[in-house]
Here is the input.
Amino acid sequence: MTTPQRDFDIVVFGATGFTGALTAEYLAAHAPVRMRWALAGRNRGKLEALRDRLGVDVTILDADVTDAGSLRRLAEASRVVVTTVGPYVRYGEPLVAACAAAGTDYVDLTGEPEFIDLMYLRYHATAERTGARLVHACGFDSIPHDLGALFTVGQLPPGRPIRLRGYVSAGGVISGGTFESAVTAFTRFRQAAAVHRERRQAQPRGGERRVRAVPGRPGYDRDAGAWVLPLPTVDPQIVVRSAQALDRYGPDFSYSHFMALKSPLTAAAVSAAVAGTFALAQLPPARKLLLRIRPAGVGPTPAQREKGWFRVRFIGESGDQQIVTEVAGGDPGYGETAKMLAESALCLAYDPLPPTAGQVTTAVAMGDALRVRLDGAGISFRVVADDVTG
Ligand SMILES: NC(=O)c1ccc[n+]([C@@H]2O[C@H](COP(=O)([O-])OP(=O)(O)OC[C@H]3O[C@@H](n4cnc5c(N)ncnc54)[C@H](OP(=O)(O)O)[C@@H]3O)[C@@H](O)[C@H]2O)c1
Here is the structure.
């Protein structure tokens, strides 16, 4: 379906928030001069202050998630909509609905599996019909993992079984918005599991190819040279979805996803912190107190972001060949996330891409075009070692 003439190439919704402002900042500094764009949100005064700070000549659009008409107008005015309004399971659905109906490309930062599954069940079919590309998880969740897996698979011979493992290491400070999203997800694990089952039943089965996520075991991993914990985030689900959609991942593909840590002590401390937060999140008064630790709108300072870093090592095995690759960059949660989100929007707006529609992953919708963009913007994808062991 051809997109009718739109007023804007890109609209950033939630630009007044911590990550939204960083995304707008990135676009102001890196977007092509010809780009027509707008900042959208519910607080015009804050948006005008941001526009003045950035020194850009952009339109301000009033939009609130509680006003469906404002979201319809926003979706119909733009070719691509970027949203950082989260927790997405609480605030995200009306905009996905509006973009799916209007045939507008959509990118977000959600790392919430329940939200992604729900949006698949409710809007994938509409978006396929209108031509909208609904691309979730365009931040640290899950671009390094999704495109890193695609990059690694691309180094191995086609048409053969592949076993892939990803090991994540990172350092950084999280924002109030991310903390709230994580705590919200912890309180909804039952709903998330039910929606996931529903999606599995509704989604058409693949053909002959076998694709699966394999939960790994905690402990010392000799191949990775690190203590590892299985990481049941949204990332392995996204990698597997890309593998289901793309034949290049071979006839039999498996993926395991881990956090890599220096010592068993750190692994124990991380497990205890996650378990403690999970337990407290179940009790409403404790949850309230927990959320005060990191209020909405607050995030790491520029100095803290400067020190942030991430590295995802992949070990891919196919027959007698083993390959080690790495995706690496700076502050994962915010600086690099804003870059990944903005580059995803630019990629959808301007790059020649394979025709796709509906809910699609970053590897399926943008693949190498987005990887090349990110590589050029300082997020490196490289082969560390390539061995034929047989
Ligand atoms: N996956 C990743 O790698 C990653 C990384 C970073 C962030 N995130 C996610 O991104 C989201 C944003 O995080 P953040 O730290 O930037 O949060 P934040 O600073 O709290 O920003 C939230 C934004 O949502 C807006 N908003 C809230 N309610 C709204 C409504 N009814 N209508 C319109 N706008 C509304 C806020 O507007 P006001 O200014 O008017 O309040 C603000 O612009 C979170 O879900 C977080 O988990 C993900």
